[in-house]
Write a structure and sequence with these properties.
By secondary structure, the protein is mostly loops. Helix content is about 0%, strand content about 5%. It is built from no helices and 2 strands. The chain has a two-stranded antiparallel sheet with strand order 1-2. The protein is flat, with a radius of gyration of 42 Å.
Length: about 130
């Protein structure tokens, strides 16, 4: 009965349609009105979807020569952390003695510290 128009579903309820009510608009935005075309005008062919294929007869694009390095010679990205020297400020290159990288701000290496083995004390007997 809904398909034939005898009943209308309105606010979660089926009811008979009101003969004086204007017709209900469907969901979503209404379509734009189309401009009428003159009868003698030709329509251009519809373009296919997607990117057009490359023309095989087109001349190749000129290759731009790469400019001299505009960078200052530094590598890309964040610089690596350097271990702090233990001898204070020195002139020249700083050399590190440990192979373990140091964290910034503390003098300890990264990770869990090694387990400390308790030194065994010789037993001393007390006699009275």
């Amino acid at each position: 009965m809904k398909d034939t128009g005898e009943l209308v579903f309105w606010k979660n309820n089926y009811m008979k349609p009101d003969p004086n009510a204007p017709p209900r608009r469907g969901r979503g935005r209404p379509p734009k009105p189309k401009d009428p075309l003159s009868p003698g005008s030709d329509l251009p062919p519809a373009r296919p979807r997607g990117r057009p294929p490359k023309d095989p007869n087109a001349p190749p694009k000129p290759v731009k020569p790469k400019a001299a390095t505009g960078r200052s010679g530094k590598p890309r990205g964040r610089p690596r952390k350097m271990a702090r020297p233990t001898g204070g400020i020195t002139t020249g290159t700083a050399t590190t003695t440990s192979a373990v990288p140091m964290t910034a701000g503390s003098g300890r290496p990264r990770g869990r510290p090694p387990k400390v083995k308790a030194a065994t004390m010789p037993e001393v007997s007390v006699q009275n």
